[in-house]
Amino acid sequence: MRRATVLCGIMALILALPAWGKKHESKYRSIEVKHFTLQEGMQLPPGFLDLIYAEIRSQASKTGLFEDVISEGEVVDVGEADTSLILEGNVLKFIPGPKGMLSGRYMPFQQSLTADFTVHRRSDGAKLLEKEVTVKAPVASPGIIVKRQGPESLAQLLSAKILNDLKSRM
């Protein structure tokens, strides 16, 4: 009896394997990622907006949501405009965290980034998603000296948050 149960389980697993390899089918062929802009008067580390742009493009390519992740300003065939999206955003707030390496006694230090983003259809400009997100990355734990994390971690977290929100809408 036990042997039959194990064999049934193995057969079910073998039959389910092809479904695991399937890619997510999307009704959108491509997405154009634009460079984020800055809220007036804000300062960011040099190259930080380029880092966000590159990270979103990289992660969007890996999601399988789109056949093509196109560069900013790249031309799309008129026939594909209905199946093409544009993602653009604005960095609203950046808190870099402390300059030192030693954290406070009672509270961990964090760096944070707040941005809003919009995803709209290329053909008619219809907004599919508009949202404000905040991501935080720890810099140090209380009483512990740690290596300070760079803005790369914030760019990765922001990208992941945007793409997860987009995936849940599609």
Question: Can you offer a commentary on this structure?
Answer:
- Helix content is 32%, strand content 28%.
- It has 170 residues and is of the alpha/beta class.
- It has one domain: 3-Layer(aba) Sandwich (Rossmann fold).
- Strands 1, 2, 3, 4, 5 and 6 form a 6-stranded mixed sheet that branches.
- 20% of the residues are buried.
- About 9% of the residues have low confidence.
What gross morphology would you assign?
elongated
Order of helices and strands: HEEHEEEEH
CATH superfamily: ABC-type transport auxiliary lipoprotein component
Fill in the CATH topology. Answer: Rossmann fold
CATH class category: Alpha Beta
In this structure, how is the largest beta sheet organized? Answer: 6 strands, mixed
- How many helical elements? 3
Number of strands: 6
Residue windows where pLDDT falls under 50 for at least 5 positions:
17-24, 100-107
Helix content: 25-40%
Strand content: 25-35%
Structural domain tally: 1
Rg measurement, Å: 21 Å
**Average pLDDT reading:** 79
Termini separation comes to 44 Å
Class by SSE composition? alpha/beta
Examine the secondary-structure arrangement and name the CATH architecture.
3-Layer(aba) Sandwich
